[in-house]
Write a structure and sequence with these properties.
alpha+beta; 5 helices; about 20% strand; about 30% helix
Length: about 180
């Protein structure tokens, strides 16, 4: 897939659905990445999203699971096998709906709880848990690319589950088993 590096501020603007322009002689789908930078709390050299570019205007198609990508000042190619589309824009309103479903479930849950007060994973329906697991995985990976010299950004990332980075096979299986509304 064709790719291009942009400022991390522009990348975040795309994530948030804000109008973003890119002066590049290209039309069609494009992988965009944060260019190399040392700006606090912003991603650096991270693939971030697939966009549709028409007349220099970017429209978000989907986030991609973050991965390392070198900054380039021109269009370049990225192996399609590295690109994993996210099922949800974790910066958008759909992510809030997913978190609210979990919160509502937790408020109404009256089953067994371990000493730490949590809800055992096997008591949480997959349609609620699977998107949360994907969200936890996304944010933990995203945080690895953020310039965070004092660890304050990473400290804000609080997974809902004690998770591990899930493998592509697990990610694909979860997406096949669960419809995310």
């Amino acid at each position: 897939m064709k790719a291009f590096s942009i400022t991390p501020q522009d990348l975040l603007s795309v994530f948030l659905g804000q109008k973003t322009s890119l002066m590049v002689p290209y039309t069609g789908q494009l992988l965009i990445a944060a260019n190399k930078n040392d700006q606090r709390h912003l991603p650096s050299e991270m693939a971030g999203a697939i966009v549709e570019i028409q007349e220099n205007q970017l429209t978000l198609v989907s986030l991609v699971h973050p991965f390392k990508i070198a900054s380039e000042a021109q269009l370049f190619e990225v192996d399609n096998q590295l690109i994993q589309r996210e099922p949800v824009n974790w910066f958008g309103p759909q992510a809030l709906v997913i978190e609210k479903k979990m919160s509502d479930f937790a408020k109404n849950y009256d089953g067994p709880r371990p000493k730490n007060g949590g809800i055992p994973r096997n008591y949480i329906p997959n349609e609620i848990a699977a998107p949360i697991i994907l969200s936890d995985d996304y944010w933990q990976t995203y945080a690895q690319f953020v310039n965070d010299p004092d660890g304050s950004f990473a400290a804000q990332i609080k997974p809902m589950f004690d998770t591990f980075l899930i493998t592509n096979k697990m990610r694909d299986k979860q997406l096949c088993d669960v419809k995310i509304d």
